[in-house]
Write a structure and sequence with these properties.
By secondary structure, the chain is α+β, with helices and mostly antiparallel strands. The chain folds into three domains: 91 residues, Sandwich (Tumour Suppressor Smad4); 150 residues, Beta-Lactamase (2-Layer Sandwich); 198 residues, P-loop containing nucleotide triphosphate hydrolases (Rossmann fold). It has 15 helices and 28 strands. It has an eight-stranded antiparallel sheet. The protein has a seven-stranded mixed sheet with strand order 22-21-23-24-20-25-28, sandwiched between helices. It has a six-stranded antiparallel sheet with strand order 2-1-11-10-7-8, with no helix packed on it. It starts with a strand and ends with a helix. Keywords: ATP-binding, Nucleotide-binding. This is Type II secretion system protein E. It holds the Pfam family FHA.
């Protein structure tokens, strides 16, 4: 039977194996799939198996059930097709596309259960033995990109930079060996899949392990409570974190030494209902771009950014929400600079990747080393280029502007929806209009979109309404591609990510609009007259070229 993939508004993915019975979806507990989506009705919609696939029927919901932009009362959906109810997205997946990256055994009313390849290997009860646990998490050694070594060759480096020899741990108690093996497999899985975060979440009697891959949370397995606790204790030992204080927020770091590279892990323990949750941010230098060419900017935007980076003074701003790749773009720009002839100083919170030849300074709130105070200090260090990890307050904004206006090249990031709103944000922070107009050289807004899995993507006709949504780049297109889902992409239909950009170089029209304190629409109009391309146009080009899907562009650019 097909699998129903459920994607929540915050990107959490769950999958449920459908059977021959009708499935109701909504907020009420009597639904076979009950979801806590406040935009969904108590009994929102239903799926019923028919010869042609499944019949989707709206149950008179308040906000409707949609396929694409079309609200439906009744429609036929087949594997590979998607629909939306409330703020939740659903997609039917062919049974051959099941993936190891799903958790088994999470029951739902009516017997509908979360489904994944290794369900049979999952512990039958919460208190399964460590040996049983390793059977299911072992799937991490098979998925993703093949490596020419196995997990046993991964070494661990503690917070002091000391290598912890595997032989020392292997001689210890069986629980310690199990913990070591679990941690190695998790690290190995991150190296294979390119995961950005590891989540280890106690659920009461068992522990859920999830990875964030390409921005989406993928459930891996449920661990035995004892095995997970032993592994988390090992992480604390490596980070030199107090093992006893479980009711406190604890942070640390460690490294893993792989045969081909080292990976840094930023560790956070937070007290939750059933214990402590572990989240590890994966900082893999292999994913750091070698330069601007690795960003796949359109040629015109690439050339403009290169010219701005080559200047001796001014300010380059990169904007977008959290997780949009701003820091990655910042590092790519830095790699274009010659640190041998320019003194480059960075202020970061925290330092994510070590770059040769740069002076990198971490923010430390406990010592009152804030962005603004470190920025003033570094300006006395004879810098040519100053990188401020993020502009968060008025003091930092004004000081950074002054630096860019007095012979330094300043690069920074800021939270803003688009290029034009970045300028308005600076004004809101108290920067004088003349300073913004004279100092800012270029603003680059960006978002990350998932790229279609090349193994399973499917071609579909480009409809008139699709062309209307995508605009000029799709004017002559007859086909587009959509996500399907297979083992290689963990059933998501996507593999990897790419940024879409909106670049606004400053020109006289934009400067005049700022000086006159005109509205955001007036500033945008001035920018458009000299070639500003909205981000949606870059996204439309990726859709037409089969790199991503229309649904993905809608998801990412809907709030812009």
């Amino acid at each position: 039977m097909p699998i129903l993939e459920v994607i929540s508004e915050d990107g959490v993915v769950r999958r449920f194996e459908l059977d021959s019975e009708k499935v109701t979806i909504g907020r009420h507990a009597d639904n076979r799939i009950k979801l806590d989506d406040h935009r969904m009705s108590r009994f929102h919609c239903e799926l019923a198996p028919i010869a042609e696939g499944y019949q989707l029927r709206d149950l008179g919901s308040s906000n409707g059930t949609r396929i694409g932009e079309q609200a439906i009362n009744k429609a036929i959906v087949r594997p590979g097709q998607a629909f939306v109810a409330g703020r939740t997205r659903f997609r039917l997946i062919d049974p051959d596309a099941r993936t190891a990256a799903s958790v088994g055994g999470a029951g739902f009313p009516g017997g509908l259960a979360a489904q994944g390849t290794h369900v049979a290997e999952a512990p039958p009860q919460p208190k399964a033995s460590p040996a049983g646990t390793l059977g299911s998490i072992k799937a991490l050694t098979k998925i993703g990109r093949p490596l020419n070594y196995d997990e046993s060759r991964i070494g661990l480096i503690n917070a002091r930079g000391q290598t912890v020899h595997a032989a020392e741990l292997d001689k210890q108690h069986e629980d310690a060996r199990t913990a070591l093996h679990l941690l190695r497999i998790l690290i190995y899985g991150c190296a294979r899949t390119g995961a950005s975060d590891i989540h280890v979440e106690p659920k009461g009697g068992s522990v859920l392990v999830r990875l964030r891959i390409d921005g989406t949370m993928i459930s891996i397995t449920q661990l035995d409570d004892n095995a997970a606790r032993q592994m988390m204790s090992l992480v604390k030992v490596l980070c030199e974190i107090d093992l006893v204080k479980r009711a406190e927020i604890q942070e640390g770091h460690l490294k893993a030494e792989l045969p081909d590279r080292k990976i840094d892990f930023r560790i956070s323990f937070t007290p939750v209902q059933f214990g402590q949750k572990l989240v590890a941010r994966v900082l893999d230098s292999n994913r750091c771009p070698a330069g601007l060419d690795d960003l796949h900017l359109p040629q015109r935007e690439n050339d403009a950014l290169r010219r701005a980076v080559a200047r001796e003074s001014g300010m380059i701003l990169i904007c977008g929400p959290t997780g949009s790749g701003k820091t990655t773009t910042l590092y790519a720009a830095l790699r274009e600079l010659d640190a041998g002839i320019r003194n480059i100083v960075t202020i970061e919170d925290p330092v994510e990747y070590e770059l040769q030849g740069l002076t990198q300074t971490p923010v430390n709130a406990e010592r009152d080393h804030t962005f603004s105070k470190l920025l003033r200090s570094c300006l006395r260090q004879d810098p040519d280029v100053v990188v401020v990890g993020e502009i968060r307050d008025s003091d930092t904004a004004v000081t950074a502007m002054q630096a860019g206006n007095t012979g330094h090249l300043v690069l920074s990031t800021i939270h803003a929806q688009n290029a034009v709103s970045t300028l308005v944000r600076l004004l809101d922070l108290g920067v004088e209009p003349y300073m913004v107009a004279s100092t800012v050289t270029l603003v680059l807004a960006q978002r990350l979109v998932r790229t279609l899995c090349p193994r399973c993507r499917r071609q579909t006709p480009m409809r008139d309404e699709d062309i209307a949504r995508l605009g000029q780049p799709a004017a002559n297109a007859t086909q587009r591609w959509e996500a399907v889902g297979c083992r290689g992409c963990y059933g998501t239909g996507y593999q990897g990510r790419r940024a879409i950009f909106e670049l606004m170089p400053m020109n006289d029209g934009v400067r005049d609009a700022i000086m006159d304190r005109l509205s955001m629409s007036a500033i945008k109009q001035a920018a458009m007259e000299t070639g500003l391309r909205p981000m949606i146009e870059h996204g439309a080009e990726l859709v037409v070229n089969g790199i991503t899907s229309l649904d993905e562009i809608d998801r990412v650019t809907g709030s812009i």
